[in-house]
Amino acid sequence: MFKLGIVGSDNSHAIAFGCLANLEEGFQGLRVPDVRVTHIYGTDPERTREVAEKCRIPHVVRELREMIGEVDGIACVWRHGSKHLRDTLPFLEAGIPAFVDKPLASSVADARALIEAAQKAGVGFTSFSTLRFARPTVEYIQSLKETAGELTSGVSTGPADQNSEYDGIFFYGIHAVELMNAVFGYGCESVTATAHNSIVAACKFKTGPLVVVNLLANAAYVFHLVAFGTKGWKEYPVDSSTCYYEGMQVFLEALRTGKWPFSSEELLEPVKVLAAIEKSLTERREVPLTEV
């Protein structure tokens, strides 16, 4: 039985992962076996107790370091990506593997520091938006390989708010960027962004595609993908119904085996894209990812 600690109780993801592991009924009818969330840490005592009671987590700790030696791995799920380096680092330094929920960080410098710390520790480590692992998303990507030919362009749409208290566009914008990477791969070279309530960012890939990341600030909550290729095209209203279940199994495999599902550059690229979007909006120009 793998003992998992949750760092950060403010996010709904803490409840999803806690219920998937600890409740017989699981979460949305799904359950992940052979794992138990045994400890949780949060800065809001009332919210932390609420999550612990709902998910039947036996140990609420007042200090992060109380988990060290008690858990086999951690999931850092703070809404603020700016808290991820501070609260994950003690575990990596203690040789404890970690999953950092989206975004990996809210700055490129913090993301690099986390990756380097995990590499130095030699432990399992990863970060991602669970949307990319939802079964319907995986099936959509596979169908594109079979019917669309070589992908040349597309649009990845999702919510984001420049004024979000949770580090601006990094909080939700990471979903649309990672969905773009899941469909079109990696190797974004530059970003050109413009804002008019919502944000539109043109992402140029060195392999050829030009993909629009469409970050909605004043529209209904939706995630949506459309990809165009040399032989066809296909849209996909993103189905998130199994994302926590599928995603939790992916990160637990990484924590258990030490094998990273993404390379250091793949972990870093979505953060760099978001940083380039911010820089492009500020400076009103195309921003190469080498500048962020």
Give the beta-strand count: 13
Strand arrangement, major sheet = 12-11-7-10-9-8-13
Average predicted local confidence, pLDDT: 97
CATH architecture descriptor name of the largest domain: 3-Layer(aba) Sandwich
CATH class of the largest domain: Alpha Beta
Taken in chain order, the helices and strands follow as EHEHEEHEHEHEHEEEEEHHE
Judging from the principal axes of the Cα atoms, what is the shape?
globular
Summarize this structure as a short list of keywords or feature phrases.
Dihydrodipicolinate Reductase, domain 2; globular; 292 residues; 37% helix; 13 strands; 7-stranded mixed sheet; Rossmann fold; 8 helices; alpha/beta
Q: What's the topology here?
A:
Elements: E1 2-7, H1 12-22, E2 35-41, H2 45-55, E3 59-61, E4 73-76, H3 84-93, E5 98-101, H4 108-121, E6 125-128, H5 135-147, E7 151-159, H6 170-184, E8 188-196, E9 198-205, E10 210-216, E11 224-229, E12 233-237, H7 243-257, H8 264-283, E13 287-288
Parallel strand pairs: 1-2, 1-4, 2-3, 4-5, 5-6, 7-10
Antiparallel strand pairs: 7-11, 8-9, 8-13, 9-10, 11-12
Task: Describe the 3D structure.
The protein has a 7-stranded mixed β-sheet with strand order 12-11-7-10-9-8-13, covered by helices on one side. The protein is built from 8 helices and 13 strands. It has 292 residues and is of the alpha/beta class.
